[in-house]
Specification:
This protein has helices at residues 2-20, 75-81, 114-128, 143-154, 171-176, 214-224, 279-288; strands at 27-35, 38-46, 54-60, 84-88, 91-92, 98-99, 131-141, 161-165, 185-190, 229-235, 245-252, 260-266. By secondary structure, it is an alpha/beta fold. It has one domain: Rossmann fold, CATH 3.40.50. The strands form 2 sheets. It has a 10-stranded mixed beta sheet, sandwiched between helices. A two-stranded antiparallel ribbon has the order 5-6.
């Protein structure tokens, strides 16, 4: 009788677990998952040519934004190169704005642990979609870019590389956190960004909290990765009439071949920069340098 009861309990647990795991299909789908006591939503794109142990790329939206793949344009790049893309949805803060809890003043008292959420979602997708544990990457716009920096500090073993776009390193991160290991990093940032200022905001004039300059933030990771030299070149712009020049700073020769890139969009504003460059193509070009082959 005891064995029968044990078997019934085991089957019930198995059935419930199966019910909680969505059936992931090729193409774009929207799913729900319960993590940290909160039901979270995310969109997932699985290309038609997806192979076993394929890479996984997270794309994190900006403050007040949504998990909208059309906003970024990563799916065609994923289809062409055979990697999965996950677009998680951020929770609302006290002002009712969606985003990622990175320690903005307005997020004071916010209990959501988004670092834990993104990492647990990554492990879930790695397991249930047979994706690579070694080749998981993260990019994000603005507030999503801040999450990229935070993940590099706190969960460097989870992500093979990160690529913040118009992202910031808040002063509290820079002062209170220490990188545990080198993580390749690629920042794309406009010099005339009035939301995430290139020169930083040491007095918190913008209300996001104090943050350091973009060159200092990127330089920190160049040092952490033990990069030995910088190569600089000017890239062609897709919009010659915009007056935006694109200066690529590449810090090379790092630990295990790691690199740190900074694309300086001269006169560029707060954006994904897709009108100036093929942003998603460039991000994948960077990530692909750190895909660990079997």
């Amino acid at each position: 009788m005891k064995k029968i009861l044990t078997t019934i309990v085991f089957l019930c647990v198995a059935v419930c677990a199966a019910a909680r795991t969505p059936e992931y299909r090729k193409g774009l789908g929207e799913y729900k998952i319960r993590i940290g006591g909160i039901e979270r939503t995310f969109k997932l794109y699985l290309p038609t040519n997806l192979s076993d142990e394929a890479p996984l790329v997270f794309v994190l939206h900006g403050y007040g934004g949504s998990a909208n793949p059309d906003r970024f344009g990563m799916n065609p790049v994923a289809e062409a190169n055979g990697f999965a893309v996950c677009y998680p949805q951020g929770e609302r803060d006290g002002k009712g704005k969606t985003g990622w809890n990175v320690g903005y003043p307005v997020q004071q008292g916010m209990k959501t642990d988004d670092v834990d959420f993104v990492c647990r979602l990554a492990r879930h997708l790695q397991k249930h979609c047979n994706l690579s544990k070694r080749n998981t990457f993260c990019t994000g716009m603005s507030n999503g870019g801040e999450m990229c920096y935070l993940l590099a500090y706190l969960r460097p073993k989870m992500f093979a590389a990160v690529a913040p776009v118009s992202g910031l390193t808040l002063e509290w991160m820079y002062r209170d956190l220490t990188a545990k290991r080198p993580v390749p990093l690629f920042e794309i940032h406009g010099t005339k960004d009035t939301t995430s200022a290139w020169e930083g905001d040491p007095e918190n004039k913008g209300g996001w909290g104090k943050y350091i300059s973009v060159p200092l933030a990127v330089g920190y990771w160049a040092a952490v990765n033990r990069c030995t030299h910088e190569v600089t070149e000017e890239l062609p712009s897709k919009r010659l009439e915009s007056g935006h020049r694109i200066i690529a700073h590449r810090y090379l020769g790092g630990t295990n071949g790691n690199e740190v890139w900074l694309y300086e969009i001269i006169n560029g504003k707060h954006s994904w920069a897709s009108k100036d460059i093929d942003t998603c193509e460039e991000i994948w070009r960077f990530f692909s340098r750190f895909v660990e082959r079997k």
